[in-house]
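Residues pack. Consider this:
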Amino acid sequence: MRGKRSKQYRKLLEQYGYHFGFREPYQVLFDAEILMDAHKFTMDLLKMVEGALHGRIKPMITHCTLLHLRTLPSSLSTPLLALTRSNCELRRCGHHELPEPLSTMDCFLDCIDPKIREKDDGIGTNRHRYVVATQDGEARRRLREIPGVPLLYVKRSVLVMEPMSQGSMDVQEREERRKFRAGLKGGRELKRKRDVANGGGDAAEDGTGDASQTIEPLRKKKSKGPKGPNPLSVLKPKKTRLVHNGQSQDPSRERDEPSANDGPLAHEEQPKKKRKRKHKSSKTAVGDTDVPEVSIQA
């Protein structure tokens, strides 16, 4: 399950990077509650966050978070303050002059978008690209309304990254539709330019039409069906014969180009004589052989 969850987090960070511009090192805002839970479960929180985000991080805490840690008992505040001072960077939220620190939700909202309270709809923008790690459920619910805010929290000693909120998904879909329409528009412009280059500008020069509005007619799709044989495979093979030097020669070429020393019928192929087989008889006939005469003297 750990490998499956890690793969999901990687894909989620790729979407945040592609649509909202997140990049390494990721700026992570920690609140006091998640630091306390990590200390309670003896978790290496910074290392786990780097593993979840699959990249280097830049841990940050605000002045309000620092004041919340100082109000804790000494058994908790001492190790947590030592951890934050050595590893975390202080984010100036502008609330250090207040007599009491603000809540986690108000402080993080001002860090993400200082003008978010002045807007009627309450929807801001995460222009600094913060990743928020908080245990406050109300703060997470409010931050889901802001597009492009990754949220982390600890659940039973396991670091969990929330899926992309509905507002972030809406921004993602609008961006994809815009790019798709821009691609279609660019394709039409290239097509019109190609028509003008191929001769569509004649109508514009004559005044009979606008060259920029010429549209290429749709090509007729070829009907699918059985294809014929390869024309090279149905050609009749050429007859060749061997000459006296062992090389093959085309008889048609030999007939077309006769030599000068040949007779009038040299270019015509002479019929071959039929070969007769001679049979040897075992016994020689008397009439067929000449027997020498022998004279006998008395």
Notes: Residues 201-215 have pLDDT under 50 and may be disordered. The two ends are 136 Å apart (CA to CA). The longest helix spans residues 166-206. The longest strand covers residues 57-62.
